[in-house]
Amino acid sequence: MLRILFVLILALQLYPLAAVAQLASASSIYFSSDSDPDLTPDFHLSTAAGQVEPAAYRRRAFTRFTVSGNVSTLGTEAQIATNLSSHLDLRMIGGYLNLTHYFTQSNFDINLNLEMPHAAALVDYYPFHNGFRISPGYLFHNTNRVRADLAAEPGATFTINNVEWTSSITDPVHGTGRLLLGGTGPMIMTGWGHILSRSHRHFTFPIEGGVAFIRSPSASFNLAGEICSPQQTNCQPAATYPEFSSNLAAQVASWNKRVAPFHIYPVIEVGVAYTFRLRE
């Protein structure tokens, strides 16, 4: 049962974003002329209408300012961005997500909590005059974690490290499991669609994917109450039951081995952005 719980925790952390990613189809393509070193006339080719629309965009910095809201495997986010040049934008990210879900499974009452606070800074580099970008950055705050508080019903049976155990009828087992996905480190992202609009249009719908290099994930599990054999005999406190403690330690070690590769953490992100023209 606890193995199933751990899979559920990991699945919540890596939930799919494929449905939201369809917004990226509204992204636009841009072509620029370099005839003027200060004022570059851009031409906007709308993928929806197929018409060319002239627009003005200055190369000097801080003429545009963008705010956006995003959904990411790091959590929900708000972003701000400004232009540094015709090929470079600077972006700041702040995010927080706190979700709680209560359910019952295999005779256990489970309170699952997902908390994901994080912050990062990235530079968006557009090597071509279209929506393709490469975004190196740094995740400078990240305390993401999943917590599960559980309480067994009297006499509930469960498996730890392939060994079957039973919760005491007089002092049912209860405890807390954690999966820590925190740590700071560099990020590298790539995507399509301008976050900061290069035309007179205000809305953009960017999508991107990449990785963040975080601390190695760590799973832990602590149980209290009394543990018994499947026949409800030899009941002992979970914290001091030698055979049970060794099985629990082996199970946690197995979980940590499974999540270790996620120190290279996959990041998928989609959102909607609005650009303000500060000056022409």
Low-confidence stretches: 1-58
CATH topology: Porin
Count of domain modules:
1
**Cα-based radius of gyration, to the nearest Å:** 25 Å
The main β sheet shows up as:
8 strands, antiparallel, barrel
CATH class: Mainly Beta
List how many beta strands DSSP finds.
21
Number of discrete helical segments: 2
Q: Could you spell the SSE succession in H and E letters? A: HEEEEEEEEEEEEEEEEEEEEHE
Describe this structure in words.
- The N and C termini lie far apart (62 Å).
- This protein has an eight-stranded antiparallel β-barrel.
- 11% of the residues lie in helices and 52% in strands.
- It has one domain (2-277): Porin.
- With 280 residues, the protein is mainly β.
Give short descriptive properties of this protein.
disordered N terminus, mainly beta, Porin, 11% helix, 52% strand, eight-stranded antiparallel barrel, 21 strands, 280 residues
Provide a short characterization of the protein structure.
It is built from 2 helices and 21 strands. The strands form 4 sheets. Strands 4-5-6-9-10-15-17-21 form an 8-stranded antiparallel β-barrel. Strands 7-8-11-14-18 form a 5-stranded antiparallel beta sheet. The protein has a 4-stranded antiparallel beta sheet with strand order 12-13-19-20. Helix content is 11%, strand content 52%.
List the helices and strands and how they pair.
Layout: H1 2-13, E1 29-32, E2 39-45, E3 52-58, E4 64-72, E5 75-83, E6 88-95, E7 98-105, E8 108-115, E9 118-125, E10 132-142, E11 145-152, E12 157-160, E13 163-167, E14 174-180, E15 185-192, E16 203-204, E17 207-213, E18 218-224, E19 226-228, E20 236-237, H2 242-259, E21 264-277
